[in-house]
Amino acid sequence: MITTAECIKRYGTPNEGGTYLVLIDLPYPMVYDGKPVNKMRCHKLVKQNFLDVFNELLSVYTYPEIVRLGIDKFGGCFNYRKMRGGSEFSRHSWGIAIDLDPQRNQLQETNKTARFARPEYAKMIDIFYKHGFVSLGREKNFDWMHFEVKD
């Protein structure tokens, strides 16, 4: 997993204005707090990685299946802040991480209760890995909602 020092070297110093962000059109609608999300801000260097993930998810699962599984539940990408309980910047501060279906994949959940730990989500997680991301759930068995660039 990428360190904060490596993030700064590769992606620059995070800032509240997100001057390094681009807006991407999502290939399928997502939902945040009951409202549709059709665009997402992310770091310009991982724009294509995210688009490749979303496009492959759509081709592997189909949109109705994405909705049924809650993969369309958007929990955020860019959020300028420190890590919960820490002093370093969250990977969300660069727009190089995304949270999905946070209601059913709570921060402290393990593979015993997190939705994304179930077998029907293995392909989703593999798709993220294929396109340069890691899953904190798979790597550390907590925060199953969170996917971030690996380098």
What's the SSE blueprint?
Elements: H1 4-11, E1 21-32, E2 35-43, H2 47-61, H3 63-69, E3 74-76, E4 97-100, H4 122-130, E5 133-135, H5 136-140, E6 146-149
Antiparallel strand pairs: 1-2, 3-4, 4-6, 5-6
Helix pairs in contact: 2-3, 2-4
What does this structure look like?
Helices cover 29% and strands 23% of the residues. It has 151 residues and is α+β, with helices and mostly antiparallel strands. It has a single domain (4-149), classed as Muramoyl-pentapeptide Carboxypeptidase, domain 2 (2-Layer Sandwich), CATH 3.30.1380. The strands form 2 sheets. A 4-stranded antiparallel beta sheet has the order 3-4-6-5. The chain is globular and about 40 Å long. The N and C termini lie close together (7 Å).
| CATH topology description | Muramoyl-pentapeptide Carboxypeptidase, domain 2
* CATH class categorisation: Alpha Beta
CATH architecture: 2-Layer Sandwich
| Domain module count | 1
How many distinct beta strands? 6
Mean pLDDT: 96
Counting helices, strands and paired strands, the structural category is: alpha+beta
The arrangement of helices and strands along the chain is HEEHHEEHEHE
Largest sheet: 4 strands, antiparallel
Strand order of the largest sheet: 3-4-6-5
Determine the strand fraction and express it as a percent band: 15-25%
Measured between the Cα atoms of the first and last residue, the distance is: 7 Å
**Shape, per Cα inertia axes:** globular
**Number of discrete helical segments:** 5
**Rg result:** 14 Å
Fraction in helix: 25-40%
Poorly predicted parts = none
